[in-house]
Structure formats: C-alpha cells, structure tokens
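Hi P.,

Sorry for the delay on this. The queue was packed all week, but I finally got your sequence through. Input first:
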Amino acid sequence: MNETPTGIGDAVEEPADSEDVGASTEAPARGSAKNEERREGAALVRATKPFDVEDVGLTWRLLTTTLLVFAAAYAGAVLAPWWPVQIASGVVAGLVNVRLFIFFHDAMHGAIFRDSWLGMRIMDVVGWYTLCPASVWRETHDYHHQHNAKMIGASIGSYPMVTVKMWQKLEPSKRFWYKFARNPLTIAFGYFTIFVGGMCIAAFLREPKKHWQAPIALLFHFGVILAIYLGFGWQAALIGGLMPNLISFALGAYLFYAQHNFPTIDVRDRRTWTYHHAALRSSSYFEMPALLHWFTGNIGYHHVHHLNHRIPFYHLPAAMAEIPALQSPGRTSWHPRDVLACLRLKLWDQEKGHMVGWDGV
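Then the structure:
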C-alpha cells in the first residue's frame, strides 16, 4: 500500500528486551558484520551493472506492442457485439493495465526513458490513468526502496508491519487502521482503498501544492470511463471501463503485498538492516507462467529489482539467470495455497524470527 494511515509503524518504540539488551557488548561485532554485508552487497550490485543499461529501441518496441494490445483489448471490451467477448476482452484489458503500469514504474526509477521527453510525457498520462501521480509515486515508492522491511520505519510506501510486542501496545484506533490496511478486502478493492483513496485523495489533501496532479489523475481516469458511458452505454462502461480497473488494481495491490509479505521473509531492526539484505531476503520472487510474467512486466523478479532498481524490467530475468547469488530468493506464486499463506501473515514475531497470523498474538 502506498499511502497508509500515518503513525502505525512509529506508534510504539521497540521494547527494550527485544533490541536494546546487550547492545553495548554486541555493537562492535554487529557493526563489523553489517559492514561486511554491505561490502558483499555493493559487490553484488556491481555485478548487476551490465543489466541496468537501457535498450532504447527495445523500450519503444515493447511500449508500442503493449499499447496495441491495450487498444485491442479495450476495443473488444467496449465494442464487441457479444457480451462474453466483451468480458473476455475486459479481463485481458485489466491484465494489460498491469503491464502498462510497469512502464510507468520503471520510468519513475530511471530504468527506461532516461533521456526521452516524449517517453516521460506518455508516462505522465499512464500515471494519471493508473491513478499514480508522479509526485506521489516518487515520494512514497522511493522511500519504500530505502526502508523496505526495516523495523521500524517501513510503513510509508508499503503495507504497515509491526512486531507482536508492538501490537500489544498499540492503542485501539491504530489497531483498527493496521487491520484495515492488511485486510484482504482492502487489497481486493485496492482500486478505491489504495489508489483512489490513498494515492490521489489523501495525498492531495496532505500536500495540495506538491501533489497537484492527483485531482488531474482522478478527472482523467474517471473521465475516460464517463466518455465510454456517454458514447457506448452503461454495459460498455461497466465491462470496458470499471471491470479492467477493478482487476488490474486488485492484482497490483496483491502483487505489492506478496512481494514483501511472504512466509520466508526476514525482517530486521534499524541497527542491523542493510539495503542488500532487504532486497535479497525481504523481497520475493513470484513464480508464474511466462504469459503472466509478460502481463506483469517481470515485476515478479522483485528481489532483483530491489537490488538494482535501474535494471529495465525486460533485463530482470537475464540478471537472475546469470548471477548465482540471485537464484535462491524467498518464493511465492499464484497458487491458492501460497496466496492464503501470504494473506494470513499479520505481524513480525522477533522471538520466532518469522511472520505470524493473529493466532500468534
């Protein structure tokens, strides 16, 4: 989640017995290990450098083919004379929305369209349609990359996470918002809870001068749906306007959740946290068929992306295939068993060293 109720992660400080005891005697050893880990991580980032070079021609070809599939899917969802074809096209349109968003995501990271004014203006429009104003996305997502799975401080730009001991000290109002943010229904209806409400409305109300594009995104997005309704009727607006977005935002919200909430995730406190460990052990690899990797723009190679966010999405599989250190990440998939396993995770248990559900409180 990119905009979460504020103050959840910092509502209570870590209990002394979980972090502070022994700090004076263990600090030198801990610092030495952290420095060594950072050196190894820096070397691994250098190994990924050959893959963070943009192929400009390939970027434009992939965007062109994606826009053609996008247009065809939406045309089928709006214009097809037979409603089953409309629905099938609407589902494809929803999936293509996810891929189109990945172009925007990579452009914001500087992985693609690095020197293209036209490319970035197209990405502005994509950001509006996907309800991700550039200023909001940069503010929250850049923070997320710098604090991924850090206890405490990872709740901006991500789903909030607290420890069992912290949960026991949270006041009722913060418990409510924490549960709300991690509720499967909040994820399923991410269209409204995360993107309309969080990325646009809440961001604009918080800083209207900075996030002036947020109302533009709302007007543009729902203006497209209104135009479909006025031109082709309510059925076309429902199947060709609302349905693809319900699908794409739900998929996007869950993908982001499962990328940092999976059974084997390792979460660290601020003293032992390192960027490279968070990339390799706190970001998942999402196993899925090749076609779904296409629709999701290879965002399933999320641990590689977090290690070096300047690698264009089309180079992520090659980076993982050629660098052995990237080939043993925590994994999840679209299998219902794995989806349920991820959704059951609610709190970080420091004593057990893994996430637990509400039954672990």
